[in-house]
Design brief:
Strands 1, 2, 3, 4 and 5 form a five-stranded antiparallel β-sheet that branches. Helix 3 packs across helix 4 (107-117). The relative contact order is 0.17. The chain has one domain (24-172). It has five helices and five strands. By secondary structure, the chain is an alpha+beta fold.
């Protein structure tokens, strides 16, 4: 059976719609934040990186609330961290984690992140959303759209996911 272009397009759209309906809230939010056009490339100061992390934190909060609207599902835990590299490019690390489903980030958390970033080069944001199967779905938002930045952020995903898991366990006690 040969399909016309219109029929193929309709079947593809139907498949995408079904796929979105079957996705969990966390997966839909993670997909929306990682798909699309690449970010504007720019180096950020430590203060600008903290502001970007706070903005992403609030965006996650809003998107999760919007996706869960009208459902009986409980709010999902999420977390954000800033990845950085040392000026001589020898050390790769990430800041303390902003985590929770809280309306605000305490000034102490901001100061801690800025102290960690002092003297280092922020390369992007790493975020995770706790899915229904209790696994963090990870995503990144690079500050610089380069292959090297992508590679560094990819290297950070596993240790950051582990940190998110540890933080989540500590907060659940």
């Amino acid at each position: 059976m040969v399909l016309t272009d219109v029929e193929r397009k309709a079947r593809r759209e139907e498949g995408r719609r079904r796929e979105l309906e079957e996705m969990s809230i966390a997966k839909r939010v993670q997909r929306k934040l990682t798909n699309g056009r690449p970010p504007a490339s720019e180096l950020k100061t430590p203060t600008a990186a903290v502001i970007a992390a706070k903005t992403l934190f609030r965006e996650l909060e809003t998107r999760i609330s919007d996706e869960a609207c009208g459902t009986a599902l409980k709010p999902r835990m999420f977390a954000v961290s800033v990845g950085y590299v040392s000026p001589d490019l020898s050390v790769l690390g990430f800041t303390p984690v902003l985590m929770g489903y809280a309306p605000a980030i305490s000034p102490g958390e901001e100061a801690s992140i800025e102290r960690t970033l002092a003297g280092n080069i922020p390369i992007g944001l790493l975020f995770g959303i706790l899915d229904d199967d209790e696994q963090f779905l990870m995503g990144v938002r690079p500050f610089m759209a380069t292959k090297q930045t992508d590679a560094w952020l990819s290297e950070l995903i596993l240790p950051v996911r582990s940190e998110f898991d540890i933080e989540a366990l500590q907060r659940s006690k």
